[in-house]
């Protein structure tokens, strides 16, 4: 039994071919669509913030956003929100993949400038996702496969943003 386990572990340690990873992600996206869902985490993270706000004494249920279908999701809680469970699975799967490949590291932040850049970048990504109505997962697995114009606009700006971000990292943080 231990031989099979160790050979499976060795297989997980190696990088997967791109075609295999892409095929698995595509299959999972199709299964998610089959259940009438779209892939995305933006709204679930918004719910997480609202649930924390409730715990701290705020009343997000009275806010205009949390009327209609959002009210039902907010009242259902974390364990009944499919997006929250998906997000938890993405985080757990990413951690497992990093651990199995011995790539998980806690690193010290090099400088306050780097910390500020990371916070600003995260804020801009979150803001962009909210005004776009979806996050990058939703765009890649929902908008692009359905040939939505907004998906292609998203893809163009992701390319521009990645290029600009890479240039800024190289110029100011290397």
Automatic annotation (TrEMBL):
The chain crosses the membrane at residues 16-34, 46-65, 85-104, 116-143, 149-170. Belongs to the TsuA/YedE (TC 9.B.102) family. It is a multi-pass membrane protein. This is YeeE/YedE family protein. Pfam families: Sulf_transp (PF04143). It comes from the Bacteria. It is found in: Cell inner membrane. Its main location: membrane. It comes from Desulfofundulus salinus. InterPro entries: Sulf_transp_TsuA/YedE. One of its GO terms (cellular component) is plasma membrane. Keywords: Cell inner membrane, Cell membrane, Membrane, Transmembrane, Transmembrane helix, Transport.
